[in-house]
Predict the 3D structure of the following.
Amino acid sequence: MLKGKSAIVTGSTSGIGRGIAHALAKEGVNIMTNGFGDTPETIAQVKSEITAFGVQADYNPADVSKPDQIDAMMDATIKAFGSCDILVNNAGIQFVSPIESFPLERWDAVIATNLSSAFYTSRRAVPLMRSKGWGRIINIASAHGLVASANKAAYVAAKHGIVGLTKVTALETAKDGVTCNAICPGWVLTPLVQKQIDAAAAKAGISKDEEAKNFLAEKQPTMQFVTPEEIGGLVVFLCSDSAKQITGSAYSIDGGWVAE
């Protein structure tokens, strides 16, 4: 059903976004990949992985916190593929600090990248999808879009905002053949999370495996990391005809995190 459609996946040169891009490409979807500050070698590798599925792939370096760069990426996608049928808002950054010492510039950066960017992309994608009578917008939120953790004020605020934006978008497109849903992953072993584990292990003087277990035990009852491939599978389902009446929902994929 998805063969021949086209998607933008922001933040798709590593981690979750890369897994989502692969999952959609496997279903026949052309992919506009996106990352900021990637090396030519990384870009070439990501495009090669996607075209191996027999689809088209392109790359756009848009800084998703900048509306003008979002507009340029959308224009480039339409020029390359003729449309943008699927939009996956995945790009995100993190900063950890108590509220009283949270740097103002880091607050602004996290909100811009994790929340405002999804508004910037959606405002361009919705008219295109509405005109074709079909579209899928999937916002990658987080378990932190449903519950909070200390010292993550900007991230938690942004991810809660993403869930709210998802609901509004769903209501505004409910009669247009367009759906909008959020996915709320728990801990995913991305390069960013691995760096956190490595640093904590070094500080505590314990093995990386032991620190990974401590990391999971704090939040994730299954004691297993969510994988980018599992998230990609959920994205594919939400794009399918089986999910055409699912809109405005926030799907947890978190090993039981928010069940506690």
Notes: DSSP finds eight helices and seven strands in the chain. The helical segments are 15-26, 40-51, 67-81, 104-132, 153-172, 191-204, 208-219, 228-239. The radius of gyration is 18 Å.
